[in-house]
Amino acid sequence: MIRPLLFAVLIGLPSIAGAQTAPADDAQAGTSASSPPQRVRSVTLGAGQSCPQSSDTEIVVCSTLDQPYRIPKQFRDSGPIPAQNQAWGNRVATVDQVSRVAGGLPDTCSAVGTGGQSGCALATNRAWAAERRAQRDAESQVP
Hints:
Shape: flat
Distance between the termini: 77 Å
Strand order of the largest sheet: 1-2
């Protein structure tokens, strides 16, 4: 029962494939098909500038200086990346750092262990530098 059906399908496949080439024949017969663009140009716009018009042979992609990314700002995720979406190397580094702090190893700023206190100054300096960067970023974003 299945073999005659399979045989009929295999016989009909070439006619289906031939039917798919019919639009290409119509394009050669007289209807004009558009060719792909020859060039893609990326333009960064300043304040008050407008995007130049594209042509049939060129695509123009415009971005502004305040938003140089193609993903709009409201759709960009700036929060921390969940652990399941991180690379395994980042996960290993996080586990390593947590293990160092838990064991009181040097440069960890931990009250446990003999070498844990040496990292407190380093951690304070890192926190201060991160705070300064955040202030600079906040100041640069204010118009």
